[in-house]
Amino acid sequence: MSNNKEIELFLTNISNLCPETLSSLVANTTETVLKKYEYFVKDGDVSREVGILVKGIVRSFFVTNEGKEYNKNLFTAPTIIGSYVSLITGLPNRLPQQALTDCLVVKIPITVIDELSENNIEIERLRRKIAEHFFVLKEKRELEMAILQAEERYLIFRDEFKGAEQLIPQYHIASYLGITATQLSRIRSKMSKKK
Fold first, then answer.
1. What is the DSSP letter of 31?
2. pLDDT grade, residue 1 (50/70/90)?
3. What local confidence, expressed as pLDDT, does residue 2 receive?
4. Contacts within 8 Å (CB) and 24+ apart, 11-20
5. Global pTM exceeds 0.90
6. Nearest-5° Cα angle at 140, 138 to 143
7. Which residue, among 38, 21, 35, 128, has the nearest Cα to 84 in the 3D structure?
8. pLDDT for 106-165, tens place per residue?
9. Is the predicted pLDDT of residue 195 greater than 70, yes or no?
């Protein structure tokens, strides 16, 4: 399946789009390859593009004043990536997004999306559904971090990010779960003994 077909299927699964709307979106996209550890958007950049992650895994993270990194989100293909706050506000991004594997990303400028949205209710609906999806994910993640034990969060991670464990380092998973790599190692060891 070509990348264009994959993109069309991905977008249509979010919101029903007519062929003309799909064509107008896809016609304005460009493909880019992010090598492992390259950035889609850096800290301090003003975002100007939305990305569709076609292949690979990307993390968003922040760095404390002490220089410690914490993974806020993990994104596995297919999904939308980009700094939404920066896209909306025009302010510099504070959550860098970095490839944890080699990635294929299809990009579309936010200016194009804005222009196409003006006279197209389908694109407006698509934008709303994407925003709603990420709002729900954000609340779900906040609740998991606040009320679930580390082992429960790990089980959710394994279910939601199937195969990711074999592709990214343990310390990135631990950071995403809000625990140390040693704690994660203990959880994995304990679970393997239960089998």
1. E
2. very low
3. 62
4. 11/52, 11/126, 14/126, 14/129, 14/130, 14/133, 15/122, 15/125, 15/126, 15/129, 16/122, 17/122, 17/123, 17/126, 18/122
5. yes
6. 110
7. 128
8. 999 999 999 999 989 999 999 999 999 999 999 999 999 999 999 999 999 999 999 999
9. no
Q: Tokens representing 110?
A: 């936010």
Burial profile 163-189: b = 16 or more Cβ within 10 angstroms, e = fewer: ebeeebeeebbbbbbebeeeebeebbe
Tokens at 27, concatenated: 């016609």
Q: What is the pLDDT of residue 36?
A: 97
Read off the DSSP letter of residue 161. Answer: T
Q: In what order do the strands lie in the sheet with 79-81?
A: 30-34, 103-109, 49-55, 79-81
Beta bridge partners of 124: none
Residue that is written with structure tokens 């580390």 in the block = 150
